[in-house]
Amino acid sequence: MRILGVNGWPGASHDGSACLLVDGEVVAFAEEERFTRHKHGYGEAPLHAASFCLREGGLALEDIDVVAHGWDMPSLLTRRGLDWFADSAQALDFLFPRSLFPRRRDPELVFVPHHTAHAASAYYFSGRREGAVLVLDGQGECESATLAKAVGGELEVLESVPPGWSLGYFYSAVCEYAGLGADAAGKAMGLAPYGTPGDVTFGGGLSFLDDGYAVGTVPRDLLSTGRTDEETDTLRLWLAHLEKTGELGPNRTVKVYDRESGRFVRRTERDPYEYRDLAATAQEALERSVIAMARRLLRETGQDTLLVAGGVGFNATLNGKLARLPEVRDLFVQPLAGDQGVSLGAAGWVAARHGESVRPMTGSIAWGKGWDPDALRRVLHKQGVRYTEPDDIADTVAGLLAEGAVVGWHQGRGEGGPRALGHRSIVTAPFPGAKRDRINLTVKDREWWRPFAPSMRLEEAGTLLGDAEPLPYMIVTTPVPEAGRAAMPAVIHVDGTTRPQTVRAEDDPLYHRLLGRVGEHTGHGVVLNTSFNGRDEPVVWTPGDALATFARTPLDALALGPFLLNRADSPAS
Question: Which domain, by its residues, includes 71?
């Protein structure tokens, strides 16, 4: 079967994406934001992403058997009193206009319930035969958490939690209250270890049970009419409660004109760091709630394998706590945990329904666009930039890293998700500890307290992490022993943990070789790895994106395929 999985709907979505699944194997995957350069792609249909996937597969839309959408859009809209189309042909034309996707026939359009798509992304692509599945996010059509069992290729939903009691929305409200922005959960997670938890019930807003949690701030059966979700109403109720019970008032934001950038920028009345105790309290409340749910789910299903998806699944600190539960023998967190991953899950769910075997992830999610050396050379010539072509780009870059350089690394096919894993990365040696401040304040232009993560050869994990278990997706934190802390101080968070990526040669030969060469210079095959992007922009995708980001950020060099651009050779230097 040829299945085009999609997420995103015109005017009513975020993190739009597309995935082409042919005979159960991922041919291509991309996120709309990578093309439009609008972070998270709010309200954007996955037009560019779908076109890319079709082109990669040598197909047109008329060649597709099923378009699988990761939301039950008819149910989502009609349940809230909003209009829907008379038939699926009209819906498909709205999603993929014929002017952009000419076709002689329409593929079948299947709407997969949102949490079903999340669960499918965790189960069918994990390689596990069975397990307990936990989906946590802001919300789907009418649920914010789903507890399920996966056995024999089938997913069985056991329980769901309605949107009003969303842990994702609770955490978003805390982020908004602290002045971080409602979509900045990763910032709150990074800030939390600097604070001291206070009243985790938030003045009665939350209560904790042996098997889960309860919310006192938002009605359990909240339903918002005239909107596509309950986010606005839920956040409004939580923000009012936080203002009533919090020691600090809300960190209000304003937009001011910034002469240097020539744009209006967002400013807060207070430094968000002042809200570190609030972040710590929210993180502990989230962990207590989810751990109780996970333990009950494992107990009731008789499983010791836990599969996690949904936007809350990006909380690596929580994932680390789940991984270390005595009840959990095996944890798989979908690296495309957010809504970008439901295009993958919807496609996998349809494939499984038709009896196809879905090929699991094996350590890489680089399913995007790649450029061969000739194409890269043409881009460089067109841009008129100076470059060299070393005999071995990995060896040359490793030498630069050993000297303290910060290098943009644009190699192979683009990756999905918010975390670069060695294809669209900024890399540097993970020492001294002050290196973190340099990257945060000058390269990434972000808060000083934000943590970084290491990429290391799997062979080094036993020494640096005290455990040789593969962690290929940089989505689970782990405590670091003294040897690791000494070797990579710039990637150790204030709580003594890190969020590692372990790299195998068979998954990424070039990146593994780079790490090996770094080890020859420094003693350990490990680097500080952060996503290749500037402030408030998506991860770079094209060579042009990489060159533009290199031009406006103080990177020392850029490795673009086999070519090297050195800042010292720039005419502007």
Answer: 2-115+344-353
